[in-house]
Task: structure prediction
Amino acid sequence: MVMIVGCICVMASCSSTKHVPQGSYLLDKVNINIQDNKQVGSEQLVNYLKQTPNHKVLGFWKLQLATYNLSGRDTTKWYNRWFRRMGKAPVIYDTDLTAASARQLRLALVNMGYLEPRVDIDTVVNAARNKIRVDYNIETGLPHYISSVKYDIPDTAVARILLADTTRLGIHAGQLFDRNELDRERTMITERLRNNGYYTFGKENISFVADTAAGSKAVDLMLKVNPPRQSGIDSIIASTPHAVYQIGKVNFITNYQPGVPIPRCIENSVDTIQFKGITIYNGPDAYLKPSILEEKCFLTPGQLYRTVNVDRTYEGLSRLGILRNIVIEIVPAEKLPSGEQLLDVYILLTRNKKQGITFDLEGTNSEGDLGFGVGLTYQHRNLGHSSNLLTAKLRGSYESLSGNLSDLINDRYTEVAGEVGITFPKFEFPFLTGRLKKRVKASTEFAASLNYQERPEYTRIIAGGAWKYRWVNRPGTTRHTVDLIDINYVYLPESTIDFIDQIAPSNPLLRYSYEDHFIMRIGYTFSKTNRRIPSGSLSKVTLQPVVYQLRTSVETAGNLLYGISSAIGQKRQNGAYHIFDIQYAQYAKAEVDYSIARNLNERHSVAFHVGGGVGVPYGNSEAIPFEKRFYAGGANGVRGWGVRTLGPGSYDSRNSVTDFINQCGDIRFDVSAEYRVKLIWVLEAGVFVDAGNIWTIRDYPNQPGGVFRFSTFWKQIAAAYGLGLRLDFQYFLLRFDLGLKAYNPAENQEQWPLIHPKWGRDATFHFSVGYPF
Result:
């Protein structure tokens, strides 16, 4: 800490103009002052500036410039080069860039509908400090607006499509004469026509004619859809209609080699297959069944060309893991005697590796208990020549529970887990027809798992099996998961009577958590986000002003088994039905989480999160199984507490063994706010506030103060605050958060640590991967 404070003092003492050449000025500040229009904000125009000052951290500290200024002038020294690479050079005032910024501001305002803007430049020089401030004083004037919209569409077929429902058009009378909106309208019309067979139609075929009267701000707008240009003719023939295209031949080339012409690839093929209207050219390895290719192809000979069907074909084929690269080329074919224009489709496929093995080694830190894990994964990406994915996983982990080197063997937690699963890239269900399978864009997963866990207090084995469906809606922003059936059997072969008697001598509800039990559940999970996905791993994505994510899930367990037990008149054992002499769980559970991040600019953002959940045991269960209950605290919860050390309610945790089991609940609520700022290099900082807790839905004896009551729950919402340091390596983010308790609802403990803080009692350090929300 002393070293950090010392570095900050050194940076602060360095002159910010240390590397500013003689006779030049450091661009210290830039202001955009809009003097006559509250409808236009400076934040809408700042991106049009060609020159902006060095970035400020927390609004006042130019950290990157300060880091750069730690370097000397001798660039042959490695440390000088390092400081310069980590920081940012001073922004030197440039009159040409300032003038260019003024021009860009005028153009931006004109495009927004303010056709007579005035932009004045005012500079304030601080000669003594070699700094300059630039003010852009703007008067937008009154905007022009659209008073009427007319259409000039000579092609009657196009006119029928566009004018059948004018409410679907985006330009209407009363709107500002915004050229950006006009361009979006051109894009929308083009997409609409290309989804109705107009393959060659482009934005250049659409133009606008604006008519204004002298002294008037009203604009009479004419939207024109121009006829196509004839090949070799410069002028446009008004009577020529736009061509409507149908799909001709559909060809798959499964042995495509990038850079090799398509005719050569066809010549190199060793096998040609005709299947349901498509032609497949295979190389020596016919690695995919024709039925799989036909099922993922939405381009059918004889149908109208639609861009959406090209996208659906890309989407369907991309779900085949055996394919590494997919290219769809569309080539106009000769016009038929009957007049139809045809398009031949060539779908070029490059195969991925069929099999692969990966090995993982990682270190773990679970609330200070250090350990490691190793994993081995085998994948076969083309089982049955249908791109079915076979996955086999084996994982082992070790964790020291005490940190005492002399007792690493006995005081430890070990886990060995294995899983085998197969994923079909299509919807599989008995008695379904092929047409319905093609319409449902879901993948089907079957999995079986076995997990062995050993602690000093107990040993347990968890066996499971699952059948689920997953599908993603284009363009990947909405995801659905249906757990058709998920079975878990928890068996404790060496769960000693001494351990159970120790944690729950007379509490059947707590004993149930560590006795054999059976869970058969169904569930559904829905998630939606507007986050744009880059087209490549290193593609630069345009900054989104607002990014949100919604996730909801619901599940129920035991209803089918309970219905069968009741129907056959099964006798209860200790008040509950059993299957294979094991009590099965019956409950319902629902969760919802919503997070939103507002990017103030490229370096500053504010994020918010709110989440909650409820689980209700009923019928065959008095309590929800331990592994299905909620917990609070940890790196993604209320960060002033470690994982499973908060709640439920005002529960006073004291015993490190029993409280781990007691600190879970049936109701969850948490809310967080976080300010994030990029510092230098890959470093980011965060300031956060968290609040929340968990509660039980019933008054269990082993969890006093934990039951949810409307009259008291608000008093039991814990609060925390803290600071975080993050390392953003683009592919992944490492997060180090220091959380401090602000309000502690636990009985018999300091209620307001914010007023009476103690480092050892109230501070919790978290290490995690990724943002908390």
